[in-house]
Structures are given as C-alpha cells and as structure tokens.
Amino acid sequence: MAGLTIDHVTKRFGEQSAVEALSLDVAPGELVALLGPSGCGKTTMLRMLAGFEPLSEGEIRLGGRTLASREHHVPPEQRNMAMVFQSYALWPHMSVADNVGYPLKLRRLDGESYRRRVAQALALVGLASYAARSPQELSGGQRQRVALARCLVTDPDVVLLDEPLANLDRHLRAAMEQSFRDFHRRTRATMIYVTHDQSEAMALADRIAVMREGRLAQWATPETLYRQPRTAWVASFIGQGSLLSVAAGRPGQRLEEAALMRGLAAVPAERTQSVLVRPEHVRVHPASPSSQDLRGRVESVTFRGERYELHLRLESGETLIAYHATALGEGQPVALTLCEGWCLEPDA
Ligand code: ATP
Q1: Can you give the residue ranges of the ABC transporter domain (predicted)?
Q2: Ligand 1 centre and the CA of 43: distance in Å?
Q3: Which residues are 204's β-sheet partners?
Q4: Whole-structure pTM over 0.85, yes or no?
Q5: Per the domain annotation, does 348 fall within a domain?
Q6: Distance from Cα 258 to the centre of ligand 1, integer Å
Q7: Whole-angstrom distance, CA of residue 30 vs CA of residue 205
Q8: Is the CB–ligand 1 distance for residue 36 below 6 Å?
Q9: Which residue among 203, 232, 261 closes a domain?
Q10: Alpha carbon of 258 to those of 263, 269, 271: distances in Å?
Q11: 82, 212, 214, 280: least surrounded by Cβ within 10 Å?
C-alpha cells in the first residue's frame, strides 16, 4: 500500500481556479473525505487524481512515484486506481459477475484466476449469490455494491469515490455507510471520498479535507473539526452550533463555563471574540426574574425524536440553539448556562 501526496496542486479553467494550491498527505490505507459545498473543487481534485484532468501547477505522488505535475502525466490506466461514480455506471446488458469482471477482461485475464477474483470481490460486498442477475434486478444499494466490487477486483492502490451514496434514499444511505466502513476495513485500500454531506464524511472518514472555493479550509479528523473548527465558516458547515461575541479568549482557545459566562456579560464594545457554542453545551433552566443569569426567550421548538431542539433569542439579540428533554412553549423566558465554547479565527 502506498501513501498519496497532493502537493500544492492548482487547476485553472481559463481565468478561474477550480483548485488552488491544495496540499494533502494521505497515509497508506487512510480513508479521506473531500468535503465542501457545490462548486468548491472536490470533483476536479478527484479527476486530477484519477488522471482524467491535467493539473496546472503542483504535483501528485503515489508512494515515491510522480503521477502528475506540469511536465508529467501518467495516464489513468497506469495509475492502478479505481473510481466509483454516483451513477454506478454498470453495463445493463451484462450480468453482475460480468460487470465486476470487466476490468479484468480489459487486462486480458481469464480462466480460473478470473473466476476466483470475481467471486472474491462479490463475496466481499455480500453479493455472491447475485452473480448471474442483471443490474436492473438489483436495488440502488446493491447496484452500488456491484460498483464497489468492480473497483476492488483489480486490487487498486487507491479507490476514488465520487458521491457514491448521493442517489440513495436516507435510510439506505445509513445502511451503506456501514457497508463502506466494512469495505474499507477489509480492503485497507487508500480511499478518497468526495461528498457534500458532512454527516456522511464524519461517519466514514479518518480525516476530512474541508474545501471552500478551491482552497483547503481545514484538514483534520472528524472529532477535531467538530470540536475545534478553525473559522466560523467551517463551524457552520460541520454540525450545529451558534456564534456569540464575547470579551474573552483568543482564536484556538477553549473557554470554560466561568470565562465564557463572564465574557458574555461584558459591554458590547468589548465583545470582539467570536465563539462557537454547540447545542449540547447549553443548559436551559426556568428563568427567575431576580437572578443575574444569561437570559433569553424561546423562539421555536422542533421535536427531534430523542429530544427537542430549541431556537432561543438572547437579550443581546443573538440567537442560540439548545437541546432540551421536554417541550417548552414558544415565547417562554429561560435562563441559560453555557458550559463551554470554542474561540474562532476570523473568516478569510
Ligand atoms: P459539485 O458538488 O457541485 O459536484 P464540486 O465541488 O465537485 O461541485 P467541481 O465540479 O470540481 O466542484 O467544480 C469546481 C469549479 O470549477 C466550478 O466553478 C466549476 O464550474 C468549474 N469547472 C469544473 N469543470 C470545469 C470545466 N471542464 N471547464 C470549466 N470550468 C469547470
């Protein structure tokens, strides 16, 4: 297994940069998600990795070998990578087994070795008994597993996945997330997974590259992205939370309850630090008129099954999201304790 290095890669289409000086070091066997809103350059990066798109600047290396630079371009078929598309791209006139074996046929493999590798790949995705069916006789999730088996059959160094679950309904996506985790654990292939769905990226990836307008906004584990997002933009893209202005802390610092509550009580002119407060760090109590508590009012209440989600308006005018075990009435005054907050850098 080889690690993948993306070294200051830039891709321009005419005047416009789709990807700008992107650098990532992907460890062998790691599953990395490229996450970002539509148009941020995820697919362009994936296509450069696959070799479908030449790059304008920078270098891509696999192990010690240069795959692409301004001067050098290894064609896709010599990269030992496999790609899984959103649309599955299965041949409708071929059986499941023939679809899976197709890349081996291209490599002129047949006979016993061909049959064994197809059977192994199908077994790995739990479809051994579907070999003779045609793709039309399968569900969306099963079709995507055929596409996974087809990309595994050649034993690739790197698997590239372009929004592979985007066509499936929510229920099936959750089940397929588990299939992907199993698939990755068993193969230990290096995988690059493109998605604009943060919960999918968080559930699957070892590390996530959050992209914004072609640039890397943050590159970290899912836990770090959630707990320590660099900017308000990253914070708004990962999980739920509220931004408040406080007179305490500096970027990259965690504020404990006492410092956070003091910082919120300061006069507005002194509250210059932006802080992210996650809903699970907000405690909601009945408001007592006499107390000095941080106070707010319930603006809306949404039932989420396991809890209620409250949107609150503070006396400062700022909004705050909180969770609560029971329903509260809209308009109800409440007192609040914020247990912790994370100080953000200003957005670029
Ligand atoms: P989505 O999630 O919508 O697929 P993405 O993050 O994958 O978006 P890309 O498809 O990589 O984004 O596109 C990045 C930018 O590059 C966009 O502004 C897009 O319009 C532009 N772009 C992509 N391919 C081309 C092309 N062949 N010619 C010109 N511009 C392109």
Answers
A1: 4-238
A2: 7
A3: none
A4: yes
A5: no
A6: 46
A7: 8
A8: yes
A9: 232
A10: 8, 20, 16
A11: 280
